[in-house]
Design goal:
single chain, nine-stranded mixed beta sheet, binds nicotinamide-adenine-dinucleotide
Amino acid sequence: MKIGFCGLGNMGAPMAANLAAAGHTVKGFDPASPCPDGVAAAVNTGDAAKDADVVITMLPNGDIAKAVAREVLDAMTPGTVLLDCSTIDVDSARAIAAMAAEKSIGALDAPVSGGVGGAAAGTLTFMVGGDAAAFATAQPLFDIMGQKAVHCGDAGNGQAAKICNNMILGATMIATCEAFALADKLGLDRQSMFDVVSTSSGYSWTMNAYCPAPGIGPASPADNDYQPGFAADLMLKDLRLSQQAAASVDADTPMGARAETLYAEFVEREDGAGKDFSAMLPRFEKRGRS
Ligand code: NAD
């Protein structure tokens, strides 16, 4: 396929490189980041999109994704597909799909899980909203960039799945970290805590696969001085998107709201910026109840 790729940052660059390495013709544009090996440099977003069968975007937020969508849709031909892999708000994803439909262009919102490591290894998971025909067109590209793509229904549902997952993840990480800090103060050693919880009803991905306590469980960012991994800043972004979505549909999400507040404090008023989101554990360690 001919692929246009806009947004060649930490995630986009390895994704574009994997598509080129698999034999696709990839033309990329990013105003700030260089094109990776195998990807031809376009002069602007429209140039990247011209003659493309599929245009992929991997951008920081909904406003930029909408602006880039407007530019690339003007250069695309009917019957082609716009595939946005950015994590953005549900309303922006649905607005992009509506703009694309006006031009008879297929649109998919397909945010990812798996981080920079998954992007480099081609093992991302895609959560996809949009019509089935566009999903079928994009499937071979999902197979190169990832290990799994789940079609979640109509436009916006990929973003909905992503923020619901990450709302659970943020709240669960906080619960796991505060329980470790409590166990410390009760004199329960961390290995015993892990051995019990990881095989009991309190188990979770954050305990079993991504344990926030250094030296306990499988290797995780805690073992690497909390270098991300999945940065607390990105968790805060996703929690904010979850609360924005919850407000827009009048959903009661008290745990998600509290998780957003805690990550905002950690990232914006404490020392959490640039650290992995599991660094909530040393944060709780230093604190008392007030
Ligand atoms: P990044 O900031 O490294 O990359 C974004 C890129 O978009 C930058 O290089 C920027 O120059 C480029 N850009 C901005 N405006 C542009 C425009 N008008 N045209 C073309 N390019 C433009 O961010 P990232 O870590 O690659 O994340 C990208 C998206 O993936 C975000 O929505 C993020 O939430 C999501 N995500 C990131 C991770 C992660 O671990 N980094 C994991 C899952 C999802």
